[in-house]
Amino acid sequence: MSRNARASAVKAVLVVLLLAFTLFPAFWMLSSAFDARAGSGGQTLLPREFSLENFGYVLTEGGFDVFLRNSAMVALVTVLASAVLALLASVAVARFRFRFRTSMLLMILVVQMVPLEALVIPLFVQVRDLGLLNTLLGLMVVYVALSLPFGIWMLRGFVAAVPIELEEAAYLDGATWGRMFRSVLLPLVMPGLVATSVFSFITAWNEFIFAMTLLGGASENYTVAIGLKQFFGEHTNEWGYIMAASTIITIPVMIFFVVVQRRLSAGLVAGAVKG
Amino acid sequence: MKRRLLPVAVLATAAFGLTACSGGSNADSGDVSAEGETLSVWIMEGTNPDSEAFFDDVAEAFTEETGAELDVEFVQWADAHDRFVTSIAGGTTPDVAETGTTWTAEFADAGALAPIGDFVEDEGLGGDLVEGLVASGTYDDELYGMPWYAGVRSLVYRSDIFEELGLEAPASWDDIVAAGEAVKAAHPEMMAFAVPGDAEFPVYPWVWGAGGEVAEQDGDEWVSGLDSAESQDGIAFYTGLATEHGFSSAGATTWKETDVLDNFSQGNVAMALMGSWTPAAIVEKNAELEGKFAATPIPGKDGGIAPSVLGGSHLSMFSTAKNPDLAWEFIKLMTTGEFAEQWGEQSGYFPGQASLLAETMESDDPLVAPFATQLVEGGGTVPVTPKYGAVQAKKTTNTAIQAILSGQKTVEQATADAAAEMNEIMNGD
Amino acid sequence: MTSTIQAPQVARGAESPRAAGGPVQRKNPLVRARPWLLLAPALAVLAVLLLWPLVRVFLFSLQDYGLREIVSGDANWIGLANYGEIFTDPTLWTVVLPNTVGFAVLAVAGTVALGTAVAVLMASLGPVWRTVVGSAIMIAWAMPAVTGTYVWVWIFDADRGIVNETLQAIGLQDEPVNWFTNRYTFYAIVLLNVIHHGFPFVAITILAGLLGVPKEMLEAAEVDGAGSWRRFWSIIVPNLRQVFAVVIILSTIWDFKVFAQVYLMPGGAGSNREALNLGVWSYVESFGQNRYGFGSAIAVLLTVVLLGITVVYVRTMLKEEEL
């Protein structure tokens, strides 16, 4: 009993320390976002003059009402498309043996080793050739490509960990491959799918270089990352707006996580089944 | 030294002789009819706090004049270079764009811009442009950048504190030190003089003010003058304000000019070199400072005015422009007359048309007149070569100043290294 | 003994043609084509949007490719001259490589260690606290890197940052210190920033893997009297070897390429030459000077180095049949 109590005390201390380390920068961000005088920089621990002015400005004149909608669309499509493509591909590399399998896996890794800055020019030309400049679709396709290698590698591990016996049992019950995929494989790789979709969501949500170059002048299609950049000026930085915009950018990711994290817990149940 | 100074007399004479009368000018305004066409334009964001309203008016006037639509796109300064390069690679450049004065020669050198000298001549504008902007817009004896607006840095100081301590605006280097010591003694919590370690433009006035040069062209060869005795003298004085006199702070060793502005508006700084566009921003950030600061031209070593870099923007026509006459109509509309004047008033910059600038000079606003004096009597330019952008990108000067401030190098070492690096970059292929 | 329960299953599953091919063992073309059909959409996207641009980056690296060539569209082949220039530049060997590699080693170790610890902690929490901690670390991950970097810069600001103020208040330091001018303190701050921004990914991923480890295995081990440290190394680590491999490989790739977190620091954009890393160096040396061929060569070099590291990782961490 006392050992248990000590264990939970240690745990509580660890949680507090972790929360402090994790949230301190976020606290800083929030406190500037609510500070009417943050514009002049020189942050203090608490707002010098509490106000919602910065948020009001960012959401109206800053254009974040439109940017949020665009980003949400881009992120949602990117998450769904990359999850589907990555899952299919990961089943192929985890469950089948075929020629060039190993080199294919390495190739998928190699494409994401190149620094993004170096890809800006060729990718811009490529997207132009596809006729997708200035469109959200062009951006979505690029983000799917950027999050695919990670997704495939990640899910490959999860698919491989699903015991083959479960699949065989499904076949014995007369299920087709597609049926087995839906009712056996899919639920079991859900936690992995959640981790990859969080990753692709954040990629699509925060990416800046390609959003800026590929969307060009189509300001009605701008995403939140471009919106944030507009407050960094040549001669002056609008700290209050920057921090308010950052807060607005951070919140949806949190909401997305809270929504999908139930799936993570559902993995517990799945884990109990497979033992 | 003369080369950099742009006295009023020179402003009125021309880089492009007054050859407007060369007959048969068929580019008179009004005869361009471009019904149904659209002109695409890129403008840098943030110069004018209310650019959108301004360009709504411009678009209306432009459509009235030419029948064509105007499509203005606002671009962030920080990312503009990448945007230009990718769109050049993809063949998607606009018809006309605002180009920073140090980019115009670079883009012209690459063949991305269309020359506009003939248009300027036909219009008879040759003699009426601010020379410093003409110089930076010229590449290979051809004009590529139409002077639009200019700004300049001067010495900005807290007039309330100077008054409190009975100080006059500094008129020499000794004055600066004396004022600094007084401020330091009375207000130890303030920085008497901010010396930012990650900014190059506040460095050159001290180099020039001591009689040195940043770089000079000698035949085909560029030679940096940063390691001359005069330049070292100037840089030693400037960095000495921090290292010897302790007027600056440890943090300022890595400051950019934006940090100087932030700290000045928080009331932490008593003196600093700041641009003609900053007073409005300071008051906007901290209304309490209104009327509590003033500007004065940067003093030379023994008095007089030390030249300060004349920065600003051109309007350039890209070689992909479908209808050059239409593009020129827009450039003319923006850079001359009413709209140029309005832009200057709204943005805190000075117009690039000399006759308009002369009008601004009449102003007795204590935060306009000293900058205007600095611009006209002490406006300098950085070396006009397409390679200078590369020197800036490599932060050659910033590196030297930061190394001196942080104690990593002596003034002699740092300037010698900087000069060597500058020579290598500017004379590279 | 318990530790080997799952691994053979994986291997067996992968080798079993019956389960792999489908319900009935048939050598029909559709079944043989199935892996390729499954891969096709992903490969199409990757080939068009990443592989071909990557090939073009390689082609640029063999040219003197500047703004002029971009405008004219002409090729200007110079062979391996760009690579020659990179390898003969002393900055590469004395500053750039040590900074890049040293930083990446520490950042990967720190991120993976902290991330794993947090994942284990989270797995032991009840659902409410798990959600709280999960949401908190999501904030750290979701905060734009730009914003996070500025916040860390503020915290360490020489004149009014809380670190300096605290150190002075408790008397450890007499004068304000500018932490950004020294190479090591500069990278210590970058390290803190990158770990703070990077560990949530590791934590969430490992947690997802942990939740897949059969409870019975852990319970059985506990009954056998294995301590929690022992259970971690003998059950969790072997079971999650693939997940760890992926996390380490990806962290390495990202930490080698770190750019914004260095570039946005005071002096990080090139004015503090001792703080250059590969990403910033390539940007300043080439993109700032319109030498895109040179920049591409650095990018190719970085890719090759990363490829080498990855191959070594894969060889040591995964058995061939697991790959």
Describe the fold and architecture.
- The complex is a heterotrimer of chains A (275), B (429) and C (323).
- Chain A has helices spanning 2-33, 53-59, 64-95, 101-110, 116-129, 136-161, 164-172, 177-188, 190-206, 209-215, 224-229, 239-274.
- Chain A is globular, with a radius of gyration of 23 Å.
- In chain A, 55% of the residues are buried.
- The longest helix of chain A is centred in the last third of the chain and has 36 residues, at 239-274.
- Mean pLDDT of chain A is 86; it is low at 267-275.
- Chain A is mostly helical.
- Chain B has 429 residues and is an alpha+beta fold.
- Chain B contains 19 helices and 14 strands.
- Chain B has helices at residues 8-12, 51-66, 77-90, 101-110, 117-123, 131-137, 159-164, 173-186, 204-209, 229-243, 257-265, 278-285, 324-335, 337-347, 354-361, 369-377, 388-394, 396-405, 411-426; strands spanning 38-44, 69-75, 96-100, 113-114, 138-139, 142-143, 145-157, 215-218, 221-224, 271-275, 294-296, 308-318, 350-351, 379-380.
- In chain B, a hairpin with a 2-residue loop joins strand 8 and strand 9 (221-224).
- The radius of gyration of chain B is 22 Å and the shape is globular.
- Mean pLDDT of chain B is 88; it is low at 1-30.
- Chain C has helices spanning 6-15, 17-21, 29-61, 67-72, 81-88, 90-123, 127-142, 145-155, 162-169, 183-210, 215-223, 228-239, 241-256, 260-263, 278-287, 292-317.
- Chain C is an all-alpha fold and 323 residues long.
- Chain C is 73% helix and 0% strand.
- The longest helix of chain C is centred in the first third of the chain and has 34 residues, at 90-123.
- The interface between A and C is large, with 113 and 110 residues.
